[in-house]
Design brief:
This protein has 14 helices and 15 strands. The chain has helices at about 25, 45-60, 75-80, 95-100, 105-110, 115-120, 140-145, 155-160, 180-190, 195-200, 220-230, 240-250, 295-300, 320-340; strands at about 35-40, 65-70, 85-90, 125-130, 130-135, 150-155, 170, 175-180, 205-215, 255, 270, 275-280, 290, 305-310, 315-320.
Length: about 350
């Protein structure tokens, strides 16, 4: 049983072990035609490699597409050896070209709304940010199935953060102003007031994990709103989530809101017996996709440790990257096998 997967010429970037393997794409309930897409530049390649390793463990055989936002030749060869389909993103407008000239990694954010054209071989496109990893393969089928009727399958941002409080700014101590993602970025993009009011009562959508069918009516509307946001001076980094909100709430397209297990980025609990991260509220479900969006130190230092409580409140100093959990699960698996043997 191998304890490491080789990524590149003699470089083991992504150790894992079969102790965390699922039953395969079909065995995990994932239907035909589903493909996972992610993307990265050279700096995010180690995270992308770990995401793909977690996918191989959770759902072997599930095809993977990669948006090349600045990978080097060595990294592309490593991905190709793993069977990944690699596609670049070319700017579709002057606004995109200017933004990419300043920050090439924005190619992933822009490309999220063009996946049906970039990866036409996938009937269902399931996007997962590179700073995520899959702990429970069953959520992949849940996400893909939720998009089956053409709806956008996505997790509300409040659930991603496991925090249901809504940020409010008080003017003169008397007048409250919502400080949600939709409101802030809608204002920055100078959207008409009537349009912004359509967004105000609706939950922000986290574009880090989502799924759409290739023929969904969302794609042209997402691209329309992306173009409008950029044309009006909106922030390039937030065009994906804001365009999703506009397509769902302004255009009235169908929306399938997913549970926090499908994309959890904060307030985890640690289960030391199961070597797993769980949600922080009963029934303490195991997280399906762990998102490291709020963990900058962890994203760039694979040896970084973070103090995470268990259900009793006891703190555990642990890693949050996929190899940390995979390697420890492997040791438990081998120990149990030795006892049985």
């Amino acid at each position: 049983m191998s304890l490491g997967r080789r990524w590149g010429d003699g470089e083991a970037l992504c150790p894992y072990n079969g102790a965390m393997e699922g039953k395969g794409a079909g065995g995990a309930g994932i239907g035909p035609g589903v493909g996972v897409v992610s993307g990265a530049d050279a700096a995010y390649f180690p995270l992308l490699a770990e995401l793909i390793a977690s996918l191989h463990d959770a759902a072997p055989g599930l095809p993977v597409g990669v948006i090349d936002a600045g990978l080097d030749a060595h990294q592309r060869r490593a991905l190709e050896r793993e069977g990944a389909i690699i596609r670049p993103f070319a700017p579709r407008s002057r606004e995109q070209a200017r933004a990419l000239a300043r920050r090439p990694a924005l190619a992933v954010n822009f490309a999220k709304l063009w996946l049906d054209e970039l990866f036409p071989e996938f009937a269902t496109l399931l996007f997962i940010d590179a700073d995520c990893w899959v702990q429970e393969g069953a959520v992949l089928a849940l996400i893909a199935d939720a998009a089956a009727t053409g709806a956008l399958a996505v997790v509300p941002s409040l659930l991603v953060a496991q925090d249901l409080t809504i940020p409010v700014r008080w003017w003169l101590g008397l007048f409250p102003e919502l400080r949600t993602f939709n409101r802030k970025n809608g204002r920055h993009a100078r959207l008409p007031r009537a349009l912004r009011r359509r967004l105000d009562p609706s939950p922000d959508l986290n574009a880090g994990v989502y799924a759409l069918r290739r023929e969904s009516r969302y794609w042209p509307r997402l691209r329309f709103w992306q173009s409008e946001i950029l044309r009006r001076g909106g922030k390039p980094f937030t065009t994906d989530g804001l365009a999703m909100a506009l397509a769902a709430y302004a255009d009235g397209l169908p929306l399938a809101l997913l549970p926090a297990t499908c994309n959890a980025a904060d307030r985890w609990l640690f289960d030391p017996e199961a070597m797993a991260l769980t949600l922080c509220q009963p029934p303490y479900e195991r997280i399906g996709i762990v998102h490291l969006a709020n963990q900058k130190k962890v994203r760039f230092d694979p040896e970084a440790r973070v103090r995470i409580p268990d259900r009793s409140g006891r703190l555990h100093e642990i890693g949050l990257r996929y190899p940390y959990f995979a390697n420890r699960a492997a040791r438990v698996h081998l120990a149990l096998a030795s006892e049985r043997g």
